[in-house]
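Give me structure tokens for this 317-residue protein.
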Amino acid sequence: MLSRVADSLYWMGRYLERAENVTRLLLVTEDFSTETQGLAEDLAQTAWKDMLTIFPSAQLTRDITPFAPLAVPYLHAFFTDQANAYSILVSIRKARENARSVREALTLEVFLALNEAFRALEAYERKGMPDLPAFRDALSATHKGIFTVVGAIEHTSTRDEGWRFLKLGESFERSYRSALVLRTKLPALLAAEARGDAPLYYTQWRTLLRGLSSLENYRRVYGARLEPNLVIGFLLFDADSPRSLRYGASIVRDYLAAISGPAELTAPARIIGKLYADLRYDDEAQMRRGDFAGLLDRVVGELAKTHDAIATQYFVT
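Here you go.
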């Protein structure tokens, strides 16, 4: 496969996954902001500001004013603002541009679904969002549109090398962004205590699980028990949950192995393999140590090295 084609498919997967992540986090954060309105405005402000840490170099292009809802500048910036590199519109546009450059590698169903999602976002940008309910309706419709694209990829694509590069990009973005969400959210959650307002405290942990599409999966394992150590262990080390860091590292490793072949251990496969081994075999010791910030910093760093190694191995010509 040409490195140009592999690069475009890899980034198409990353941009689609990024758009889904942003959409979900906006919906969940808006829910949390509404739920805590009048009760814990500082927590709602922190939740919105966290978006700028989870997506580094993202920026607000509208001022925060005392008379407008706090959510509005963030929703504008991360939904259809073309000046923000991490907005949903920009991510879908870049995914579409990559798809157009490798049109022959994609099915008609994938390209049409992606084009429809992009056109819908353009329409939202033109007409604007008059209020928060309009934002929520548009975000929900966009989320469904992104899942339609992902479903078309899953159900119509040949499992060839191009598909593997696309899925590698998707899996890498999911793991990397999940690690950043945890690195951003966990320190404040661990510093808080349940003494003052237990319902609010547990709402924060539930929101963390929702933000990583893991609440229902967590409940299947632990039922109604919402204990911080169980949540952390689940999000870091669960073997089957698609958003856990251990599972994510294993999937990235598997796609790299499928691309290179079982006989070759490439530089990116070596880096991600070591990270997976740490998450797989040192989980109990890491839970006892409790240095989750240090662990997450290392995970983010190793994933960044993995990306650089992937680019050097496959995309540099």
